[in-house]
Amino acid sequence: xxxxxxxxxxxxxxxxxxxxxxxxxxxxxxxxxxxxxxxxxxxxxxxxxxxxxxxxxxxxxxxxxxxxxxxxxxxxxxxxxxxxxxxxxxxxxxxxxxxxxxxxxxxxxxxxxxxxxxxxxxxxxxxxxxxxxxxxxxxxxxxxxxxxxxxxxxxxxxxxxxxxxxxxxxx
Length: 171
Prior knowledge:
Blueprint: E1 7-16, H1 20-28, H2 30-36, E2 41-44, E3 51-55, E4 61-71, E5 75-79, E6 81-82, H3 87-91, E7 94-103, E8 106-115, H4 121-144, H5 156-164
Antiparallel strand pairs: 1-8, 2-3, 3-4, 4-5, 4-6, 5-7, 7-8
Helix pairs in contact: 1-2, 2-4, 4-5
């Protein structure tokens, strides 16, 4: 994979009253992620080339990928590919980068989602809806010990755009 071909499509920055080590742990452990990611558990093989998996609450693989950069507690880059038949073939791989920096008494977390091709705004609406809720809930868990309860469903315009591409959306 030539990551130089990837261009950011979504970028979010959030400040968290925590330490870089705690933010890193929250991003890379199933224990934390189940709290802030609506029951989904992150599994990260701790090396470049290792596996990245996001398991649904029922244990199935919802998102799979590979660790592209692993520099605790500063930077994690992964491929982030939703496990829907035909999706990767239609849209290419997604690259997600987490950059963690100390900023005074808090941590600046920047999440970037990048693609190696043009992605329509309708399809990007899924990430535009999901990432702010996920990152805000991560912040809440680290600062208060409690996740946010955010009612989320994939945006209808994203689902319609994927259907037009011939992507079968699992129920």
